[in-house]
């Protein structure tokens, strides 16, 4: 996905990759770089530091995965390398620090409390009523997120949660009703290079519970761009890609969360199709060549929107699945990419949006936002994924296609 070899000049720079074996296996064999394996069983920064022990201090430490941002910050601190340290990264990883920064900037976010504070003080410190979200402070993909009708039921559920949760690692927050958008793009030295808004069809929380999810690109208004830039400034994102989520309300967008990274699922591909900018590549260029590196950006047209869709497999309870009701959509003229697991191909038991690990995923477009939303809504209502306890020989060869195939 990142395509390091296409962006970094490996002849001009001495590059070392530290990775677990399955990730290292995705690296082209002809790239002139040092390759160091880490086991992937312990804390990431400790494993990286052990792997590079004895090597010269690096000039730059790069980590693009959301899960690696804090470990990379610890590695930088260990070597005194320029770049984001732990204090810089916490506002884009820890949801308590994140929303505190947003609130300090005068922007609206859901009301919240660290779980430990809420438990120690009961509900006395809670200033909202109604539905309440229990959420990991540094989680992703809505994994471990639970929704309760009241603050009291959320707090009461903590003591009965199995396996027990680490109190310090969770927060509770107000549930704010409304459609959810994600705003993706690139900033350079605080200025917007490219910004694209999308609206979810379904929610990440429902996906974690077993429902399909998607999003469709929509118009990006000047007001949304201004709001996004204020959010980025509040948490310290000055250069690089961002993935910002907000809740649409009658009083304007309410901040949900933000990442100093490119979005998951097929956000990277749909963003590139619409704007010509590949977010991971842009991030690498800005990191290596500096924030004033020019990027070639196209202007998305209203009739040239794209969207993505994904069905979860982690909730099936089995490695294999059967898919029904999809035949009417596989060759739809608005389907740009269709990736479907065969009955003899296993799906992941972990929450993931990756095309190659879920029952069904892909891209729709180009088309209008209205047409793409209607198509996803119809697909979600018509296609069913059910568990299968054993692999089966496929009755029909299913080939992943792109560009309307």
Provide an overview of this structure.
The chain is an alpha+beta fold and 405 residues long. It has three domains: 4-89; 111-174, Dna Ligase, domain 1; 180-402, D-amino Acid Aminotransferase, Chain A, domain 1 (2-Layer Sandwich). The protein has 14 helices and 17 strands. It has helices at residues 4-7, 21-24, 44-51, 69-79, 86-89, 95-104, 115-120, 151-158, 204-208, 222-235, 267-275, 279-289, 327-330, 369-382; strands at 16-19, 34-37, 112-114, 132-136, 146-148, 170-174, 180-188, 191-201, 213-218, 240-249, 252-259, 305-311, 320-324, 335-340, 360-367, 384-388, 401-402. Helix 3 crosses helix 4. The longest helix has 14 residues, at 222-235. Mean pLDDT is 92; it is low at 395-400.
Which keywords apply here?
405 residues, alpha+beta, Dna Ligase, domain 1, D-amino Acid Aminotransferase, Chain A, domain 1, 3 domains, four-stranded antiparallel β-sheet, 14 helices, 17 strands, 28% helix
Blueprint of the fold:
Elements lengths: L3 H4 L8 E4 L1 H4 L9 E4 L6 H8 L17 H11 L6 H4 L5 H10 L7 E3 H6 L11 E5 L9 E3 L2 H8 L11 E5 L5 E9 L2 E11 L2 H5 L4 E6 L3 H14 L4 E10 L2 E8 L7 H9 L3 H11 L15 E7 L8 E5 L2 H4 L4 E6 L19 E8 L1 H14 L1 E5 L12 E2 L3
Parallel strand pairs: 1-2
Antiparallel strand pairs: 3-6, 4-5, 4-6, 7-8, 7-10, 8-9, 9-12, 10-11, 12-15, 13-16, 14-15, 14-17
């Amino acid at each position: 996905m990142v395509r390091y070899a296409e962006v970094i000049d490996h002849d001009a720079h001495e590059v070392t990759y530290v990775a677990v074996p399955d990730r290292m296996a995705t690296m082209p064999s002809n790239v002139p770089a040092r390759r160091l394996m880490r086991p992937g069983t312990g804390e990431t920064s400790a494993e990286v530091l052990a792997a590079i022990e004895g090597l010269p201090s690096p000039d730059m430490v790069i980590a693009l995965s959301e899960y690696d941002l804090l470990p990379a910050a610890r590695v930088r601190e260990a070597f005194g390398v320029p770049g984001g340290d732990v204090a810089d990264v916490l506002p884009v990883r820890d949801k308590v620090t994140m929303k505190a920064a947003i609130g300090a900037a005068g922007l609206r976010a859901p009301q919240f409390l660290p779980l430990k504070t809420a438990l120690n003080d009961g509900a006395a410190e809670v200033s909202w009523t109604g539905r309440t979200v229990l959420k990991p402070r540094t989680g992703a993909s809505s994994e471990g997120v639970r929704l309760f009708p009241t603050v009291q039921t959320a707090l009461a559920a903590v003591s009965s949660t199995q396996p027990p949760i680490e109190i310090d690692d969770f927060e509770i927050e107000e549930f704010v009703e409304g459609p959810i958008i994600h705003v993706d793009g690139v900033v350079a030295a605080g200025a917007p290079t490219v910004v694209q808004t999308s609206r979810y069809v379904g929610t990440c929380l429902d996906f974690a519970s077993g429902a399909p999810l998607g999003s469709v690109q929509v118009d990006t208004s000047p007001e949304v761009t201004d709001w996004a830039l204020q959010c980025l400034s509040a948490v310290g994102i000055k250069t690089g890609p961002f993935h910002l989520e907000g809740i649409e309300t009658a009083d304007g967008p309410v901040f949900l969360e933000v990442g100093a990274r490119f979005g998951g699922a097929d956000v990277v591909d749909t963003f590139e199709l619409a704007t010509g900018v590949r977010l991971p590549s842009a991030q690498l260029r800005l990191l290596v060549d500096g924030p004033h590196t020019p990027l070639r950006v196209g202007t998305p047209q209203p009739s040239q929107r794209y969207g993505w869709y994904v069905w979860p497999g982690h909730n099936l309870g089995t490695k294999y699945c059967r898919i029904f009701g999809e035949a009417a959509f596989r060759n739809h003229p608005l389907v740009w990419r269709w990736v479907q697991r065969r009955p003899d191909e296993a799906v992941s038991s972990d929450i993931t949006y990756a095309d190659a690990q879920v029952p069904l995923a892909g891209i729709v477009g180009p088309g209008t936002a209205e047409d793409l939303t209607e198509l996803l809504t119809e697909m979600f209502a018509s296609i069913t994924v059910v568990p299968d306890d054993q692999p089966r020989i496929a009755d029909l060869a299913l080939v992943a296609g792109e560009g309307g195939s």
